[in-house]
Amino acid sequence: MMIRSICAGLLWLSFSHVANADAIPANLIFLGQYEYDVANSFADPGLIGNASHSGSIFSRVGGVDSTTTFSDGAIDSGANPLSSFFSMHGGGIAGGGDGFGGSSVASAGLDGEFRVDTDQVTVPLIVANNTSQAYEIVFNLSFDHTVFSAGTASYVRSDIELNREGSAILANEIVSDTLVSNEKGGVETGDKGGTVTDSGEMLYTFTLAPGESTAFDIDYTSENFFIPPDGNVTSSANYFLSIDNITAVPEPASGVVGFLGMVVVLLKRRRTAIAA
């Protein structure tokens, strides 16, 4: 895994549709769904407080975006889930390929509470190699998120993860906590409360053998706890998982295979002669 930190402005410029993206090889399948998890997302104002969140998810297929918007635990517009059969990869250009992404803004005060959850609830992103050729595949997870907390005991976190077969392979979490400690990337910063922000790119490279398939899901979660009478929290995020690059894995040269075969035969003959 390689992480490349870049400034937020350049990061989101890379999300523009890139004209020179390359077609995914035939019979190399990228198929899945992405959705706003209505069952686990909410904005509860409490008895005297307030809470709200809004945002969107999108899928990019062939350079064209399909978008769904949501707020406070309900869908405002668009399909949910978004189903996609991806056709383009970025050719090594960050954010240039097809993929799933989203954005979110949330806030709460007093005893208000929110949770924003977007992931592959129903169908994961399936990658299947129905060819006789092995491929090296690179995913690019770009992100930019910020959290803020104030008050005597306020807490808010923002977490972006890419999972493969149920296990996290890429993750970035930030926490603003006025009582214990802020966190960035799972490490306590020593500060308490205020603004915590992080942005960058995380790359994941894997090889898919002929006939092999695997499953991924991208999960974004933001939530808050412990809002005292003098407290308030905010959270915002943008993220995009793109198919960054696909490269055929070269097969061993026939000459090398023939040479190795000759070595095996000679070794067998030598062992036979020694035994005699």
Task: Describe this protein's structure.
It contains two helices and 20 strands. It has one domain. The protein is 10% helix and 57% strand. The radius of gyration is 24 Å and the shape is elongated.
Q: Helix and strand string, N-terminal first?
A: EHEEEEEEEEEEEEEEEEEEEH
The total count of strands amounts to 20
Overall pLDDT score: 86
SS-derived structural category: mainly beta
Number of domains: 1
Count of DSSP H/I helices: 2
Approximate shape: elongated
User: Uncertain segments of ≥5 residues (pLDDT<50)?
Assistant: 1-18, 255-275
From the N-terminal CA to the C-terminal CA, the straight-line distance is: 53 Å
> What is the makeup of the main sheet?
10 strands, antiparallel
Strand percent estimate: over 45%
Overall radius of gyration: 24 Å
What is the share of helical residues?
10-25%
In short:
The protein has 276 residues and is mainly beta.
Question: What attributes does this structure have?
Answer:
2 helices, elongated, 276 residues, single chain, eight-stranded antiparallel sheet, disordered N terminus
Describe the SSE topology:
Blueprint: E1 2-4, H1 8-13, E2 22-23, E3 28-36, E4 42-44, E5 50-61, E6 64-71, E7 74-77, E8 82-85, E9 88-89, E10 99-109, E11 113-119, E12 125-129, E13 135-150, E14 155-164, E15 167-177, E16 183-184, E17 187-188, E18 194-208, E19 213-225, E20 232-248, H2 254-275
Antiparallel strand pairs: 1-18, 2-9, 3-8, 3-11, 3-12, 4-11, 5-6, 5-10, 6-7, 10-20, 11-19, 12-19, 13-18, 13-20, 14-15, 14-19, 15-16, 16-17
